[in-house]
Amino acid sequence: MLNIYIISLKEIPILFIDLRLINTKYIKAYSLMKNMIIASTSTLYGGEFLDYLLDDLKLHFKHTDTILFIPYARPGGISHDLYTKKVATAFAKINKQVIGIHESKTPKDAIKNAKGIYVGGGNTFVLVNELYKENLISSIKDVVVNGTPYLGTSAGSNICGLTMRTTNDMPIVYPPSFNTLALVPFNINPHYLDPNTHSKHMGETREIRIKEFHKFNTQPVIGLREGSYLKVNGTKITLKGNLQARVFEYNKTPYEVENNSDFSFLN
Description:
Blueprint (H helix, E strand, L loop, with lengths): L3 E6 L2 E6 L6 H8 L3 E5 L14 H7 L5 E5 L9 H12 L5 E4 L6 H7 L3 E3 L4 H10 L3 H9 L4 E4 L1 H4 L28 E3 L16 H8 L7 E3 L5 E5 L2 E5 L4 E4 L6 E3 L10
Parallel strand pairs: 3-7, 4-5, 4-6, 6-7, 8-9
Antiparallel strand pairs: 1-2, 3-10, 9-12, 10-11, 12-13
């Protein structure tokens, strides 16, 4: 709640707002110029790593030849070096060099000096735990809201939301907090899957799990299907790709949003 006080000084009313109750971090994150691609996945079925995004990434990273890669999520337990090598192979197709943040003795300086950042997929708990360990959450947020181009896939997309609580991953480590970058005003569920009416699997669907989330949390959740991504330019958030996204708002029936739609209404 925002506290507003009105007092009178020589019969002239003066308005005071209790700024202590305004989360200025979120105001900053939503108001400055961001340039982001938030993708559900790095690889489409039958395709190569990042291939479906490369044309867009040429433009996205057009002002730099070097990308700082954050390999902390370690899909399948892959080492930081091998993960970085895989990413470098993909970016070489568009003549970009890749440097792994783990190669730097001062990761915060690497973030500060980066001209482009890519946070890859894997396990979101492992990723967030490492980001807190290196004290990089605020560092990444600061440079992105000031215009450093950002690419996130899978876990690297999940952390763009308010919290990581709508990840699909197993909690194999325990980060200090589930709060993440808050660069968009909602949570993200990458790799969103629709219920399969022909399946004999009796476990919870993704939609059921998000409904469970909304029993304890109120922020919207965007279900990003494979091949879909969000393009963020400043305060504008546009759905790209060939598929719809599924939107879950608190106490509302879930609904579909077409590609090229603007998600800024969720601000």
